[in-house]
Amino acid sequence: MARKYFRSSIQELEVLFKDQNDIIDVLLAIQDELTHRTTDRAARLRNRVTDQLAVLRKGAHKETSQEPPRVPSHEPPPMPRVYEEQVLPPPQIPPDRTISASRTSRTEPRMEQQPPLPPITNRPDDVLSAWTALEVLSPPSYVRPEDLASGDRRRVTSLNDSPLPWERGEKSRPNYRLYYQVVLGSIKMEPAVARLVERYADTDPEKKSATGKAVLAIVVVNRQGQLVESPAVDISSFGWGVMSALKGELADLAGWPDVEPKLVAKIEKMLLGVGVRNEEEDELRKRPLTRAVLFAAYNALVQEFELPQEWVEPPEFAVRSYAYFKDPNPPEPMLLNSFFLEDLALARRLFSEGKATQNLRCYLGIERPQNRLDLLCNTTALAEAVSPGLTPLARWPEPDRYPLVLLQQAAVNLAFNEAKTRKLLGVNGPPGTGKTTLLRDLVAGVVTERAEMMAKFKDPEEAFQHSGAKLKAGDGWIHLYRLNQSLRGFEMVIASSNNKAVENVSAEIPGLKAIASDALELRYFKTLSDALHQSETWGTIAAVLGNARNRSRFKQTFWWDDDNGLNRYLRAAAGSICEVEITNEHTGLLERRAPQIVKVEKPPSTREEALERWKNARKKFLSALDKSRKWQTWLEELRSDLARLPVFAQAEADAVARRDLAIENARRQESALAIAREAEAETSRELQYADLELQAHGLVKPGFWARLLRTRTAREWSDTLEALRSNYRRAEAQRTKTSTDRRRVENELQRAVLEREKTETVWQAACAQHQQVKQRLAEANQKYGVVLTDAAFFKLDRDRQHQLTPWFPPEAQRLRDEVFIAAIALHRAFIDAAAKPLRHNLGALMNAFTTQMLPGAGKQALLPDLWASLFLVVPLISTTFASVNRMLGKLPLESLGWLLVDEAGQALPQAAVGALLRTRRAVIVGDPVQIEPVVVLPKMLTEAMCRRFGVDPDQYAAPSASVQTLADAASTYTTEFPTRLSSRSVGVPLLVHRRCSEPMFGISNAVAYSGMMVSAKLPKPSPIRDVLGPSRWIHVEGSGEDKWCQEEGDEVLRLLLQIAAVHVLPELYIITPFVIVADRLRQIVRDSGVLNGWVEEDPWRWTNERIGTVHTVQGREAEAVILALGAPYPAQTGARGWAGGRPNLLNVAVTRAKEVIYVIGNRELWREAGVFRDLDKRLPQS
Residue 158 CB: number of other CB atoms within 10 A? Predict the structure, then answer.
């Protein structure tokens, strides 16, 4: 039951008791409220209420009301769990820190009657509300205090000692300012989550355990113990929300974004003592905090949150934090709550106002693709996807100049094409299918597109416009510049929930191994990049940012480092003399020299030299771009020819048919003419004969008198004459007719001959055109090596087809490499020529890097320009989703260009909201058949929360939903992977696998991808395999504690000892499905001493890095894997069924091994566990 009267004064409760003491519901509510109060007056009233309830329960009483009446008050009725900004004087806490006893005995939270569930509608604001509720109960946790200090125990200071740390006058590190982050109490996660599990019946046998503690609140003070500028307090959403969840008040959890600021303001004012005296807040902020004030605030929070006393621990320590002395801002408060709550609140507001960004609308399913195209079934769609016209003019110069294969190139092309319309593309990347390779080509394409825009400026300084704003910096000023809009939208952020994954990508992309060994001219501020990554790199193409520690390290190295920082370089490039002071090792005297970055990178010495460099770089880039574009145009013409080839073939066939008809018609007309002429000749003869008959008859003409007297002879002659004349006329008419027919046929024959000649010409032209196109295509294929996406291509063996690179032959690919190399050189020259405005903008950004705040709204509006200036230098930055809000949260919507998500199948669906809001385009790469998102909350609670908001948990809640599943559903391009019972729809698929040898590849392909992956793995040596033998299942029967089996641990040690005995480096991972097994394996390996003198790093670090659950190694790979199964008892079918019920865990486990895998466990038991049947079929036993 909620505390209906928690804002009512004791006097108001007494009045309420007097007026309503015959209504049980009212008395119960008053009694519940009084259990939270500790004054004598409250205790007396509580006794009176208890006595009155006893009387009423024994005798007759009024019918209870359905809702307790409001407390008489002049204030409006309080909203549930929203804190008003009233401030109480801090209660006096004894020096021994005794906590109020009001919470030591508490009633079990009473379940409130909930309204019926709404229908499932999946409205975007409901989805975001459900995600908010889930995140309220998902805080970061810690086990040891040093976990909050990045593992550095020296940064932890006790509050139990007297005096407090700031009262002892501690000194800071050199060149740093000291702050304290006071942990204002904590909540034990285990009992709290156990109560949630009990309430919401979780049946997952290997649910990620809720260990450790969640910080209740953080208070940030400076070295003198004074509160820093607001916000100086951060408060736990979990502490606020857990009791609501236990009461079933799930809908209330979405209200945390409204509650939090009021509660923070209340506690901060309480710490300051605002309202106690009429002093100015600025004066109060100068007063150091005391132990009494801290514990009063803690006590107030515990009381407000209604937390059981056994769940909480009082303030015991603070964490020292340091800010570089040139940075005017205090350090960020450590994260207490879900990293996503602020962005979820922002997204909800945007949807309510109708202002949601398009990529977020697509992501949440508001805008679905009209027609989805299956790239593996629709060859027309696939051919279009890899067409030359869609292929970027530049590419990444891969090691050995290898090109992307069919579906990789399709994904890159569609990323650029789809980003113009849909703004979001999902790419499905099974293990080892070249996701990082694909991302590198995306980076090359984006960098080159920006270089095209850069090349339009004759002078790079013209791209910067002075805003009129400036910031005071020491004795000088930092001027703020607007960056031309044409250079915006190319910023790239790569994000993931897997911190190791994004750090690996950000480290791999600048690495020398990531580029062709002969690309010697590809260098870009290498000195700075080497310093940032502490390794050998080719250039500053990417940087690891994200959490506060990474950002601080980046800022210190990138900007403030005297020897390698870009600040020094830009000063020199802008014309200033730049030197550093060093102490001579031999003489001990100070000496001055040029910074390393200036010495190695050689900035221009004058403005004229910078512009000359720009002119040359621009010319070279445009030349390379033109050459690549000519190839692209020619190849696109070839593709057009190929597309029209069936048309040409049909035209030729039609011409042949028309020609043949014309020939046949001419032949018919010739025959008809012969007949007509014969008929005419016959009629001519008949006419001639008739004429001869007339002439002969005229010779026997009777005399005059005979004719006059009409003798019989005369009459007979006359009759014969008339008959002959009639015959003559008939013969003459027939001859006229046949002559006409003959002339008509002659005309028809003439027309037929002309038509025959015409169709012959048309046929010859059609034939020539068809042959020319076929010849051009054949020549392109045979002479230049162009792979055509013709019918023959799609009839190729599937394995062969998917490993080919359509259209661009090696020569064209090499030109694309040159374009990227020239684009990088152009960026370098642009920076040289715009050093002055760029240095000002970067200096301003570095000063605001922690808070992301600039003084005044006008200056704050320039923050996107400052970030865009950084991206001009460092095109790609990486972050975890957890750090997006703190790093980029002050940027306006769609301020940045591209979001590239890695390992998206492992990310909670709500994790990507903040990153999507701040970027214009998104390419989301992952695999839903690898490790799913980790969820601590009970599944039943997760589902109940979603349904309370009308949201389908299968579609929008982890673990069944992830960033990848939502992106795949939003993508126009897709394919279907058959599963055992149905099918799985994914985004653009990547299928060519290059990581794992057999049997790992075959196992993965069988259990997760229905045999659709294609192996392109080249055989490689394996020292570990030489020692331990080929992949196999080592059958072990044993016993142990829980899922731990000691005999399996002994076998793991035996294998390690074998490898160590021959001094082969342990390039391997030891993994298991279960946490307890991983913990015990680490312990026995450490205790055995096998690592001593064998591995270079500290054994503790090696075991933490190399031994863990399967969930911890996604995104990594090694020569070998040892998979210890655990769950050795026959009765543990639930645990084994959990591990083998879905393909994800086994898929990830086997694909971490490049060359060999050793499975250790009870084969007889595990072979019956779901997908482990396939493992049993494919692994020999030993």
Answer: 11
CB 1013 within 8 A of CB 991: yes
User: For residue 94, how many other CB atoms are within 10 A of its CB?
Assistant: 9
Model pLDDT for residues 323-351, shown as the tens digit of each residue: 877 777 787 778 788 889 889 999 999 99
Number of Cα atoms under 13 Å in the Cβ half of residue 266: 20
Round to whole Å and give the CA distance between 338 and 134: 9
Determine the Cα–Cα distance for residues 1032 and 1153; give it in Å rounded to an integer. Answer: 13
CA angle 1073/1075/1076 to nearest 5° reads: 115
- Distances 950 to 60, 121, 227, 254, 1043 between C-alpha atoms, Å: 44, 6, 43, 13, 38
Cα–Cα distance for residue pair 625/617, rounded to 1 Å: 12
Q: Is 669 helix (H, G, I), strand (E, B) or coil?
A: helix
Tell me whether strands 217-222 and 317-324 are parallel, antiparallel or unpaired.
unpaired
Kindly report, residue by residue over 41-72, the tens digit of the pLDDT: 777 888 888 878 877 776 543 333 333 333 33
Q: Amino acid letter at 62?
A: K
Contact 1014, 991 (CB under 8 A): yes
Cα 1118 to Cα 439, 1024, 1078, 1156, distances in angstroms: 21, 11, 18, 9
- CA dihedral sign, ordered 145, 148, 154, 160: negative
Quote the strand ranges of 447-566, DSSP E.
Answer: 464-473, 476-483, 492-496, 542-544
Take residue 492 and report the two structure tokens written for it: 């790239």
E strand residue ranges, 633-773: none
Lookup: tokens for 1149: 């486990």
* Dist CA 185 CA 1136 (whole Å): 39
Ramachandran quadrant class, 175 (left: phi over 0; alpha: psi -120 to 50; beta: rest): left
Phi, psi at 986, each rounded to 5°: -130, 175
pLDDT digits (tens, 9 = 90+) for 478-509: 999 999 999 999 999 999 987 777 788 888 99
Report helix, strand or coil for 1015: strand
Cβ(65)–Cβ(25) below 8 Å: yes
Give the containing element (helix H, strand E) for 428: strand 424-428
Question: If DSSP states are collapsed to H, E and C, what string results for 549-612?
Answer: HHHHHHHHHHHHCCCCCHHHHHHHHCCCCCCEEEECCCCCCEEEECCHHHHHHCCCCCHHHHHH
Q: 112, 81 in Cβ contact below 8 A?
A: no
88 in helix, strand or coil? coil
Rounded-to-integer distance, Cα 330 and Cα 242, Å: 31
Task: Give me the helix-helix angle, 10-20 and 24-34, nearest 10°.
Answer: 160
Q: Which residues are registered as beta bridge partners of 1153? A: 1118
Helix, strand, coil percentages for the chain (3-state, nearest 5): 50, 15, 35
For residues 252 and 257, give the distance between their C-alpha atoms in angstroms, rounded to a whole number.
11
597-655 pLDDT per residue, tens: 999 999 999 999 999 999 999 999 999 999 999 999 999 999 999 999 999 999 999 99
Place of tokens 């125990």: 153
Q: Are the beta carbons of 83 and 304 closer than 8 angstroms?
A: yes
C-alpha angle 489/492/494, rounded to 5°?
150
* Distance, CA of 1107 to CA of 1095 (rounded, Å): 14
d(CA 300, CA 37): 11
Question: H or E stretch including 1134?
Answer: helix 1133-1140
Query: Would you say 426 and 371 are in contact if contact means Cβ atoms under 8 Å apart?
Result: no
Cβ atoms within 10 Å, residue 1025: 18
Backbone phi, psi, residue 978, to 5°: -65, 145
Looking at every residue in the chain, the average pLDDT score rounds to 88
